[in-house]
Specification:
six-stranded parallel sheet, single chain, 293 residues, three-stranded parallel sheet, binds ligand L34, alpha/beta, Rossmann fold, 11 strands
């Protein structure tokens, strides 16, 4: 099994991105500016947003982190979105998910100016992506495409099974993998909670993309010999032997599956760092006005 080292690739790409930011600066452009809104104290979200801000610092971006308490109202959050839409210094911004239950995430998403929607979650970008038009691609699926390409993994004509159908990973991933594009042209199956025989679907896959959110859900017996396995899950499991009291595990039973897979991504250090990298790449595209003018 060859490891797909998302962390190493993210670090390598960081150098390239920094050079690009330096070039923008020396050509008299302002540096790209990403803003992130973080609501509440979800420890995962705090950690992911911290990684995004750190990546901004490392590549020479300007960044703004807006932190709000769980008690923020929907109206207050919508007002923040409006301010960010209107702020000419901000090239792109994200509202970190999940949001508290009393806020309608769909309503907030719709309020984001598609030009600044570097998450690619607004229906304008999602629709454009689906039609194969220029669009911000959602960061996690985009990061997965970049890893598959970088490792020279053939996707054309392969059977790809996406496990999970969320709006931020499973659904867009399945669309992208089926599209006529360099990394694409797969025959795609989505499996979800109502699928009749999940295990036999997964067992038929050349490429498995696991985005369910259940620790170690995908076990070796479900994997075809030589399959490529991409693990999107990040689950915290209690571990008293760790200083932090927990460790991160994916949706894939890593040790077992590593005996059968040809390639696989680890957790941590796989999809996560490439999600951050893709968001940063989208923000460069936003700053350059390459999709919308
Ligand atoms: N709006 N909400 C919005 N945009 C996104 O793109 C996200 N996502 C997902 C959750 N909510 C979102 C992220 O940012 C998942 N996600 C994300 C980002 C970064 C990492 C993981 C998930 C990441 O950096 N993972 C590290 C470990 C992090 C840790 O130590 O906790 C890794 O090596 O996997």
């Amino acid at each position: 099994m060859q490891l797909i080292d998302g962390k190493a690739l993210a670090t390598k790409m960081k150098t390239k991105i920094k050079e690009e930011v330096d070039a923008m600066k020396s050509s008299g452009m302002k540096v790209p500016h990403l803003a992130a809104v973080l609501v509440g104290d979800n420890p995962g979200s705090q950690s992911y947003v911290r990684n995004k801000v750190r990546y901004c610092d490392d590549v020479g971006f300007e960044s703004t982190l807006i932190k709000k308490d769980d008690s923020i109202t929907e109206g207050e959050l919508l007002a923040i979105v409006q301010d960010l839409n209107d702020d000419p210094s901000v090239d792109g911004f994200i509202i970190q998910l999940p949001l508290p239950d009393h806020i309608d995430a769909e309503k907030v998403n719709l309020a984001i100016d598609p030009k600044k929607d570097v998450d690619g979650f607004h229906p304008m970008n999602f629709g454009r992506m689906t039609l194969g038009l220029p669009a911000y691609l959602p960061a996690t699926p985009q990061g997965i495409l970049v890893m598959l390409e970088e490792y020279g993994i053939e996707t054309s004509g392969k059977k790809c099974v996406v496990v999970g159908r969320s709006n931020i990973v499973g659904m867009p991933m399945s669309i992208l993998m089926a599209q006529k594009r360099k990394t694409g042209n797969c025959t795609v199956t989505i499996v979800h909670s109502r699928t009749k025989d999940t295990v036999s679907e997964i067992r038929a896959a050349d490429i498995v993309i696991a985005a369910i959110g259940r620790a170690n859900y995908i076990t070796a017996d479900m994997i075809k010999e030589g399959a490529v396995v991409i693990d999107v899950g990040i689950n915290r499991v209690d571990d008293d032997s760790r200083k932090r009291g927990y460790r991160l595990v994916g949706d894939v039973d890593f040790l077992g599956v590593s005996e059968k897979a040809s390639y696989m991504t680890p957790v941590p250090g796989g999809v996560g760092p490439m999600t951050v990298t893709s968001l940063i790449m989208n923000t460069i595209i936003a700053a350059k006005g390459q999709i919308y003018n």
